[in-house]
From TrEMBL:
Quaternary structure and partners: Homodimer.
Keywords: Magnesium, Metal-binding, Transferase
Gene name for this UniProt entry: uppS
Source organism of this protein record: Dulcicalothrix desertica PCC 7102
Active-site residues, record numbering mapped to chain: 29, 77 (proton acceptor)
Metal-binding listed as a keyword: yes
Name assigned to this protein: Isoprenyl transferase
Enzyme class (EC, first level): transferase
Length: 249
């Protein structure tokens, strides 16, 4: 590794390790616009988007961030042109296949959050193999929200809890925040400290509705394929200046 590469792996000196977010979530928006600005097909934006996500994962791992959650495919994304949906689903498979070795080397724990049953069977199998293979890794927890919708997640948790109540396994008064959380797709991952959205849109778009109750939000005009290490550094600097009160005075 060159000296410059080693330097990039070290936390920049003006970021305080003790004030880093433990869990970062990202809404990867703007792939289509990035491609359009270059006169390229939208799918080229998604290809470049994967590169941005890989770089962010590496940076988070290098800088000691414990969890990264990325919104890759929403329940609404099925409404895109069939060609684009097919490309995205194939891209997930290709990337999972090509990156799994590297993620094992970096000790990444991969998790997928969403209604996975609706995905193509081959992708479902790859997802469960990747989760199983990386289950005992001790590095960063990398969650890819795929066919994910926050409202759908809450409804699915409600249904699962109601079934337990119906079966007499749970009493209504026993349903607390911890019980509820353990029925979410993101069970065990915890709430994000920082949510980043690219491409300047001021929306949550049905992402992690339960989990972001006290999350700090950072919005940048950068399009997702342009979201690089410097952009992330700026998001962290902004986060470190915030005073988090969690509802207290
Ligand atoms: C939003 O941009 C992006 C997506 C719907 C796809 C996001 C996917 C990735 C970043 C790749 C993830 C890959 C893996 C393997 C996890 P947009 O198409 O909505 O852009 P626009 O708003 O400019 O049209």
């Amino acid at each position: 590794m060159t000296a410059q590469q080693t330097e990039l792996r070290v936390l920049p000196s003006d970021l305080k390790r003790e004030l880093l977010p433990k869990h970062v979530a990202v809404i990867c928006d703007g792939n289509g616009r990035w491609a359009r600005h270059r006169g390229l097909p939208r799918i080229m934006g998604h290809k470049r988007g994967v590169e941005s996500l890989k770089q962010l994962l590496r940076t988070c791992n290098d800088w000691g961030i414990e969890a990264l959650t990325a919104y890759a495919f929403s329940t609404e994304n099925w409404k895109r042109p069939q060609e684009e949906v097919d490309f995205l689903l194939t891209l997930f498979q290709v990337v999972l296949r090509s990156e799994l070795r590297e993620m094992m080397k970096e000790s990444v724990r991969i998790k997928f959050a969403g209604n996975l049953n609706a995905l193509p069977t081959a992708l479902q199998e790859q997802i469960s193999d990747a989760m199983e293979e990386t289950r005992n890794n001790r590095g960063i927890k990398f969650t890819i929200a795929t066919n994910y919708g926050g409202r759908q997640e809450i409804l699915s948790a409600c249904r699962a809890i109601a079934e337990k109540v119906e079966q007499g396994l749970l009493k209504p008064h026993e349903i607390d925040e911890a019980t509820f959380e353990s029925h979410l797709y993101t069970a065990g991952i915890g709430d994000p400290d920082l949510l980043i959205r690219t491409s300047g849109e001021m929306r949550i778009s049905n992402f992690l509705l339960w989990q972001i109750a006290y999350t700090e939000i950072y919005i940048t005009d950068a399009l997702w394929p342009d979201f690089d290490r410097d952009e992330f550094y700026r998001a962290l600097l902004s986060f470190q200046k915030r005073e988090r009160r969690f509802g207290k005075a």
